[in-house]
């Protein structure tokens, strides 16, 4: 079944504030506020995530040398849970417009 709905939408062309978000590898998210033509409040999120991933990469390497495959799986799950928790906090802070320091 294919349903098409058409309706007109009014587009606002003037804005007072714009929040720009850049997603990246080194910095998970970078935000900057554009208010009345001036940029302010730059924030860089994700430093903690890089630290966690670096820690677990070293741990994986050491465990791989010992051929501890079960332990590598357990460690991988722990890393994923920790990173996902931090990513959730970052996305929530960006959406809610909080400017305090985040992980």
Question: Describe it for me?
Answer:
There is one protein chain. The protein has one domain (17-96). It is built from 2 helices and 3 strands. The chain has helices spanning 47-65, 69-96; strands spanning 17-23, 29-35, 38-45. A 3-stranded antiparallel sheet has the order 1-2-3, with no helix packed on it. Strand 2 and strand 3 (38-45) form a beta hairpin. Helix 1 packs antiparallel against helix 2. The chain is elongated.
Kindly state the percentage of residues in helix.
40-55%
Global outline: elongated
**Cα distance, first to last residue?**
45 Å
H/E element order: EEEHH
User: Which blocks of ≥5 consecutive residues have pLDDT under 50?
Assistant: none
**Beta-strand content bin:** 15-25%
> Total number of β-strand segments?
3
Summarize the main sheet: 3 strands, antiparallel
How many helices? The count is: 2
Radius of gyration: 20 Å
User: Strand order across the biggest sheet?
Assistant: 1-2-3
State mean pLDDT (0 to 100 scale).
83
Compact description:
The chain contains two helices and three strands. With 103 residues, the protein is α+β, with helices and mostly antiparallel strands. The chain has one domain.
What are its keywords?
103 residues; alpha+beta; three-stranded antiparallel β-sheet; 46% helix
Topology:
Blueprint: E1 17-23, E2 29-35, E3 38-45, H1 47-65, H2 69-96
Antiparallel strand pairs: 1-2, 2-3
